[in-house]
Amino acid sequence: MDARPIGVFDSGLGGLTTVKKLAEFLPSEDIIYLGDTGRVPYGPRSRDTIIRYARQDAAFLAGLDIKAMVIACNTVCSVAFDVLDRAYDLPLYEVVTAPARAAAALTKNGKIGVIGTNATIGSGAYEKALNNEAPGLEVFSAPCPLFVPLAENGRTGTDDVAALAIADDYLRGMRELGVDTLIMGCTHYPLLRAVISKVMGPGVTLIDSGAETAMTVAEDLRERGMLSAGGAEGAMRYYVTDSIDGFASLASRFLESEVRGRIELVALD
């Protein structure tokens, strides 16, 4: 047993969709979340900048005596995971492999779509992961940079004309190519699930990268014997790098519940 908390970080608040699933799968675990809200988004940044930010995020969490670290940022996982994995001697989880495995298992026609930030799509990380799972799959990728601001501004309803128009513009090509499985390769995107599903149609299975990763984390920590003793509900702590004003209301969109726990402002650079 290990009573230390699980650390999770993302470039902003999208990683809270992963925290939501972790809390569902591991309700007795303490979780610390770091959202680099002062420098979001990471997607358009250079590789060197993403690596520098990722190192600072990871160092902050590691300094809080965590037992495992979840990188709930597809951009960081795609660009900087190997750098962090070499730097820390603790279980480190990325959000690319688990959804790739799920997509490869669920597709019926072998045509898989991947959507994410510019950096995630440009890295080719999902193509590599999917090829490792099942060589021969047809993978179609598209960056969807405006999905992050849509999610963070609450423009996520199927009655939102702008959200639907943007989603149709991004996804029309994949729909016409006949993908039957679509990986939402950014932890913000589950908030737009209904919009994406409406655009893609009922025959397309959507894969939530954060949810698939949370399930993997829960299974792995259980196998390692690293879960807490259980019983009481786990505590939550939140750290952000920009103002905490309005954090609770915005974070509740991603958690789909009221925010509980301490919220603190920190400086990373």
Describe the fold and architecture.
This protein is an alpha/beta fold and 269 residues long. The protein has 2 domains: 6-94 and 211-265, Rossmann fold; 97-210, Rossmann fold (3-Layer(aba) Sandwich), CATH 3.40.50.1860. Helices cover 45% and strands 17% of the residues. It is built from 11 helices and 10 strands. It has helices at residues 16-25, 47-62, 74-87, 97-106, 118-123, 125-133, 147-152, 161-177, 193-200, 209-224, 247-255; strands spanning 6-10, 31-35, 68-71, 92-93, 111-116, 138-143, 181-184, 205-208, 236-240, 262-265. The strands form 2 sheets. It has a 6-stranded parallel β-sheet, sandwiched between helices. Helix 1 crosses helix 10 and helix 4 (97-106) packs across helix 10 (209-224). The two termini are 34 Å apart. The mean pLDDT is 94.
Question: What is the gist of this entry?
Answer:
The chain is of the alpha/beta class and 269 residues long. The chain has helices spanning 16-25, 47-62, 74-87, 97-106, 118-123, 125-133, 147-152, 161-177, 193-200, 209-224, 247-255, and strands spanning 6-10, 31-35, 68-71, 92-93, 111-116, 138-143, 181-184, 205-208, 236-240, 262-265.
Mind sketching the topology for me?
Layout: E1 6-10, H1 16-25, E2 31-35, H2 47-62, E3 68-71, H3 74-87, E4 92-93, H4 97-106, E5 111-116, H5 118-123, H6 125-133, E6 138-143, H7 147-152, H8 161-177, E7 181-184, H9 193-200, E8 205-208, H10 209-224, E9 236-240, H11 247-255, E10 262-265
Parallel strand pairs: 1-2, 1-3, 2-9, 3-4, 5-6, 5-7, 7-8, 9-10
Helix pairs in contact: 1-10, 2-3, 4-6, 4-10, 8-9
